Amino acid sequence: MNRKTEPASPKEILITGFGGQGIVLAGQIVGKAASLLDKKESTLTQSYGPEARGGACSAQVIISDRTIHYPYVRRPDILVCMSQGGYDRFADTLKGDGTLIIDQDLVQPAAARGSGFFAIPATRIAEELGRRMMANIVILGFFTSVTEAVTADAMRRTVSESVPRGTGEANIGAFNKGYEFGLATLKGRQKKAEGKKGVR
């Protein structure tokens, strides 16, 4: 039976880190996957610090079922941090019920976070795969599984089309590693929650 559902509210996504981590590419992949393959409206804006490599860098993506009238993220629903500086700058802008995703080896949150907090050793995983530069793709896989903001199929196809020629297979492997890490994280939380219920 088909039921009519109301269009979902726009999702404001902020990805932050430093130049050289592929932050803008990550934002481009999310926006393209949402608009070209998931057939949603999306916008992308980006900013760089004074230095292209090593300076502050962020990508802002908005995804919506409806026309987006203002392209800048003000209060992100999802904040992805790949540097301490990015976390320090943007953590306070995250919505109270928002989702925070960090590279756990590069970011130390200032305070305990609730159910919307997720951590993954993205850079370490990328190094184990032989390419540190794929940390952004690892974290995109994780982002995809824990938020479901974009479909996994759309993300995989866009990753494959967006990375340098000859690196597609390696990057898809990196994406899958992050995606599987996210699924395992969610499963672990579910088991923990069920265990707590069973204790009562």
How would the blueprint of this fold be written?
Layout: E1 11-18, H1 23-37, E2 41-48, E3 56-64, E4 78-81, H2 84-90, E5 99-103, E6 117-120, H3 122-128, H4 135-147, H5 152-162, H6 168-199
Parallel strand pairs: 1-4, 4-5, 5-6
Antiparallel strand pairs: 1-3, 2-3
Helix pairs in contact: 1-5, 3-4, 4-6, 5-6
Overall description:
- There is one protein chain.
- This protein is an alpha/beta fold.
- The chain has a single domain, classed as 3-Layer(aba) Sandwich (Pyruvate-ferredoxin Oxidoreductase, domain 3).
- It has 6 helices and 6 strands.
- A 6-stranded mixed beta sheet has the order 2-3-1-4-5-6, sandwiched between helices.
- The longest helix is centred in the C-terminal third of the chain and has 32 residues, at 168-199.
- The radius of gyration is 17 Å and the shape is globular.
What features would you highlight for this structure?
200 residues, single chain, Pyruvate-ferredoxin Oxidoreductase, domain 3, 6 helices, 42% helix, alpha/beta, six-stranded mixed beta sheet
Summarize the structure.
By secondary structure, the chain is of the alpha/beta class. It has six helices and six strands, in the order βαβββαββαααα.
Beta-strand fraction estimate: 15-25%
Helix content: 40-55%
Distance between the termini: 37 Å
For the report, how would you describe the main beta sheet?
A: 6 strands, mixed
Strand order within the widest sheet?
2-3-1-4-5-6
Q: Structural class per helix/strand content?
A: alpha/beta
Shape label: globular
